[in-house]
Design a protein that fits this description.
little secondary structure, globular
Length: 65
């Protein structure tokens, strides 16, 4: 699928070092490798599935709490 770059419009900023980005509701775009603020499961421009959960074990356990 052709990408039009609209993921960059939704780029999220990190506001705190305490809470993780996933805890703040941000999702990771695998195409651009950045976090975005987006409500859907699929990326707005690339159409790829956004990552909604951390992959690191220590971050997974923190999210469960």
């Amino acid at each position: 699928m052709h990408c039009n770059g609209s993921c960059k419009k939704y780029k999220a900023t990190s506001t705190s070092l305490d809470g993780g980005r996933y805890e703040l509701g941000q999702k990771r775009c695998p195409e651009y490798e950045l976090f975005i603020n987006w409500e859907g499961l699929w990326g707005p421009c690339c159409g790829r599935l956004l990552r909604t959960k951390p992959r690191a074990k220590k971050l997974k356990s923190r999210k469960k709490k």
